[in-house]
Design goal:
Blueprint (H helix, E strand, L loop, with lengths): L1 H18 L27 E12 L3 E12 L2 H21 L7 E14 L5 E16 L5 H11 L3 E8 L4 H26 L3 E12 L3 E6 L17 E13 L1
Antiparallel strand pairs: 1-8, 2-4, 2-5, 3-4, 5-7, 6-8
Helix pairs in contact: 2-3
């Protein structure tokens, strides 16, 4: 029993001596605890946003005209026959003016029965209305006034609208895009100068194009209508390009 107690004391002493720090050496420092990660938001990029506009005006070289023939009768066959005769006369007049048949397209043909009533509300019968509308492309604007006069005298009794346009807009749009980009660059440089900062590189750019045909005239034809009474003015077609650009601030 005594020998066992001595053995236990000896083992304990050896363990303590192994853990002791030798003279002249500092005790090892405790492992540092990791600092909690920062939860800050990254700094927002500094930018300048501008909108540039480029606009070009072009002389139109084509016109689109909607020409209609209207007829009506209490007999559907007679209404159709009258309308067909007038439509053929209009088509012939267009050919004589040099309009290519491929530039004449039927855009609408309608037969509408309408009930007629007397002053006391009594039914008088049915009237059939026939409308035949063609969409004509006029490539020679010099004959436009003459064309309107001729088709009305040939039987057309409605001119539903005229629009002018430019067939090839590629060069005009390219010029408008260049002007829009230059406008955006100039504005960005100017804003940076006013703000006392240095303008950096272009970050993003969006381009928007607008070049609608220009509607000029809408009216109804009739007996006695001639070219001198039609307010024809081709004017100009406007091509507009807008650029939204974002530049970095250095």
């Amino acid at each position: 029993m005594r020998n066992a107690l001595l053995l236990v004391c000896l083992v304990t002493a050896l363990a303590l001596s192994a853990c002791a720090v030798p003279p002249g050496q500092a005790a090892p420092a405790a492992a540092p605890q990791s600092a909690p990660a920062q939860q800050g938001i990254p700094p927002q990029a500094r930018t300048i946003s501008v909108n540039g506009v480029g606009q070009v005006t072009l002389a139109p070289d084509v016109a689109y005209v909607s020409i209609g023939v209207h007829s009506q009768s209490d007999n559907v066959s007679e209404a159709l026959s009258q309308n067909n005769q007038k439509a053929q006369a209009v088509a012939g007049a267009l050919r004589e003016l040099g309009i290519d048949p491929k530039d004449v397209q039927t855009s609408g043909f309608n037969v509408v029965p309408q009930q007629e009533f007397g002053p006391q509300g009594e039914q008088l019968g049915i009237v059939y209305s026939v409308d035949n509308t063609v969409y004509v492309t006029v490539r020679d604007l010099q004959i436009l006034g003459q064309l309107l006069d001729v088709v009305v005298r040939s039987g057309a009794n409605s001119i539903n609208g005229i629009a002018f346009d430019v067939l090839d807009k590629s060069k005009g749009l390219a010029e408008a895009r260049q002007l829009a980009v230059e406008s955006a660059q100039s504005q960005a440089a100017e804003m940076a100068q006013y703000a006392g900062v240095t303008l950096g590189e272009l970050q993003t750019m969006n381009v928007y194009t607008s070049s609608p045909p220009t509607p000029i005239f809408e009216g109804k034809g009739g007996v006695g209508m001639d070219a001198a009474q039609v307010p024809i003015s081709a004017g100009q077609v406007i091509l507009r390009v807008e650029v939204g650009a974002v530049y970095a601030i250095q």
